[in-house]
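Practice record 12: protein with pyridoxal-5'-phosphate.
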Amino acid sequence: MERPTESVVDGSQASPPVHPKELPAVDRLLRLPAVAVLLAEHGHTRVATEARALLEGLRTQALAGALTLADIETDALAAAVARRVGQRLAPRMRTVINLTGTVIHTNLGRSLLADSALQHLLAMMASPNNLEFDLASGGRGDRDTVVEELLCTLTGAEAATVVNNNAAAVLLSIAALARGKEVIVSRGELVEIGGAFRMPDVMASAGATLVEVGTTNRTHPADYERAITERTALLMKVHTSNYAVQGFTAAVDEVDLAPIAHAKGLPLVTDLGSGSLVDLAAWGLPREPLPQEKLAAGCDVVTFSGDKLLGGPQAGLLVGSQAAIGRIRKFPMKRALRMSKLPLAALEATLMLYLRPERLTQNLPTLRLLTRPVEAIRALALALLPAVRSAVAPRFEVTALDMLGQIGSGSLPVERLPSAGLAIAPVQKKGAGRSLDALATALRSLPQPVIGRIADDRLLLDLRCLEDASLLLNQLPALQERLA
Ligand SMILES: *Cc1c(COP(=O)(O)O)cnc(C)c1O
């Protein structure tokens, strides 16, 4: 915006500052034809509030002598009101393009829902449904039954229940089975998951006392056996999902731990974290432990997330024995952690996809992205190269490159996913860091923000998760503008 300055000698080139008194009243502003259109669309409250706030800002500017007649032309004022209304009504939550190379990215919303899950969710939310109504008897039903049978079919469990997320599932399991008593956990499994989920703190929140056994790298069956007293209520295993203990290590598998627990009449709970219902090795991916294996090994309860490898909505799934799940379901905290009908509908549809495992890589976005052949991603990188190159020229140069992505969300931290994409590097090595930041900022400021990652003085766009290339291509003119 041009401002009149003291140094302007020729008064004809800059209009004199506007006095606050020259600003229109709100009512006059609202009567402008362009503003009337806004009123018709959005109603009086929003438009009048924004018009008043706009005038307030202009008054401050005018008092500072920083307002010109051009700023308060009717067209400019009407456009400014429209802009304010538009900004206020724009949702803060927006879709972004995930080119980070991390498929299940916690900060970017984790798993994408399958089409069938979206459709089921929409249909169930737009209408009354039988969430807690037994259509056979006409009496009250239990929302758990929506997914319990499916979860039992898929994992071989006797019983299942669901809560808000896996952190809640762990908290609830410990509280229901061990409140006021002791829970034995290996020192090698006292995990911290991003976002303040730390096993010792969860234990305290649940009102149980943590008893650590073994060492960071090695824990043996005898460590558990020695720690069991009359105060013990539970033995617990935690999948070390976001780190790996390597080298001279030993951990006690559920197969060996379950008999130790059961000999003393104690339950064994495993927090699996991600937990996949299908063996990813079938698609050449790194293997994650399956809930069904842990149950077969003798676990009384296995908890895992709905929106990690399962590929569904945020949810905490608990599968296990009738006795343990029954106690968990009856525990009062369950009501506070219960799942909403929104994710429940999405979860049911997602679980149903697992009834047809051969179709999973088509129908489940998470698995579709994870199994995307690297040759296809490479071909996409080459196809996009010329357009991206010309959009970021001359400041940056672009190359198509093989890169390593990851599954994400704490699963398989040491395993890398071979992938491909574009690497964008500043031509000028001087100030390269600033240039890269500017590029990353420009990409994030696009109508549908593009999120890449910076490594080795380059901005990497991993294309594994870009299924619709036009989302990127259509935004290249805007990117070019922002970089100019
Ligand atoms: C991710 C994770 C959790 C938390 O699960 P949310 O669904 O994010 O609440 C708990 N334990 C482990 C081992 C995890 O990997």
